């Protein structure tokens, strides 16, 4: 039986983050406040899920290295694929940060969640792109440009809503109260992230945190929002201890493959 | 040896000519060569390998493009052609051919502007002088950063009032 390796865990974490956030964003498809922004969020979802596929394909190759049984779920023929990793793992196997699985709430909450994540993702991917793992570097370099575009779009929306009407400001404040406690986890390294930093594959998260704070403060200043002083942060997602929200995502996302194994369009 | 080399050269050109007929299903006026996603053509004995790279990570047209390249090659007798996808170096609109840009404009999509002037990610920064593909005015404004596909944004011409797609600089 092949066991997991830190590289595989790290790759799955990178994949899970963008799959879960991508899936959350895709829930807006057909429900956006106006057509153009419905399309915007659907396109962002598409980018994120595309990034997830690249990571999962790499992870599937790593998981299937062994000739024996893998600890990861396999599909027909006993092969671990990008699809089996996405559709057949259970909640406790997912390594995404808690931020990405939180409910969409209203437009303000969705925007703020995307902004927090993009502000993290651009620096993470910029560092991955110069890391020692060539596959992760290639995925990072490609997705970096996409993340930058998402960051600009979401930053502008945070400003527009924060500095907009009384109602939009209140909604942004409420979103901030709901999401803030999930932002710290992005920078508290799980064991595989510590390993990745030591192996010079991924970044040192404590250094990234400084940059994130600058990015967020800059936008909050423009938006008339106060950078929270709260120190306590909820953690656990990156090690498989999730909020109840992940279950709802998986229930919908995995339903078809669970009910009709191996089903194809 | 000399002879074999010649054959190889001819074959690569032949493959290129065939790829000219494979169009992007989302932007059907562009061939995969115009788009700049064909990175290499390799011929090893009788086997053809076409190396392609996606525009955006999540571009849903990639599977279709792979299938179409394979189909066109098969139709012309290249039975076991391999289509390999690579991510690095990451695709950029700089790789789009001039011919491709001209075709886009004629089709009603504003082509990407050159990379060195744009692709700024500063807040509220907008690419300047996106030219209307219909009346050629530069008096245009952004409607949405995202359009009908991942590679496009939506603009409006303030002179002729027509909305149009802009193939984003990337």
Considering the chains and any ligands shown, give keywords for the structure:
heterodimer, A: 265 residues, mainly alpha, Ferritin, 63% helix, globular, B: 170 residues, alpha/beta, GMP Synthetase, Chain A, domain 3, 2 domains, 4-stranded mixed beta sheet, 3-stranded mixed beta sheet, 4 helices, 7 strands, disordered N terminus
Topology:
The complex is a heterodimer of chains A (265) and B (170).
Chain A: H1 6-26, H2 35-63, H3 82-87, H4 98-101, H5 107-128, H6 134-162, H7 166-179, H8 191-198, H9 205-223, H10 245-259
Chain B: H1 2-19, H2 32-35, E1 38-44, E2 47-52, H3 62-75, E3 82-85, H4 98-107, E4 109-110, E5 140-144, E6 152-157, E7 163-167
Parallel strand pairs in B: 2-3, 4-7
Antiparallel strand pairs in B: 1-2, 5-6, 6-7
Structural summary, described in words:
The complex is a heterodimer of chains A (265) and B (170). Chain A is an all-alpha fold and 265 residues long. Chain A has one domain (6-259): Up-down Bundle (Ferritin). Chain A contains 10 helices and no strands. Chain A has helices at residues 6-26, 35-63, 82-87, 98-101, 107-128, 134-162, 166-179, 191-198, 205-223, 245-259. In chain A, α1 crosses α8 (191-198), α2 (35-63) runs antiparallel to α6 (134-162) and α5 crosses α7. Chain B is an alpha/beta fold and 170 residues long. Chain B has 2 domains: 2-91, Fe-S cluster assembly (FSCA) (GMP Synthetase, Chain A, domain 3); 96-167, no CATH class. Chain B has helices at residues 2-19, 32-35, 62-75, 98-107; strands at 38-44, 47-52, 82-85, 109-110, 140-144, 152-157, 163-167. In chain B, the strands form 2 sheets. In chain B, strands 4-7-6-5 form a 4-stranded mixed sheet. Chain B is elongated and about 55 Å long. In chain B, 36% of the residues are buried. Mean pLDDT of chain B is 85; it is low at 1-7. The chains are: A mainly alpha (265), B alpha/beta (170). At the A-B interface, α2 and α6 of A face loops of B.
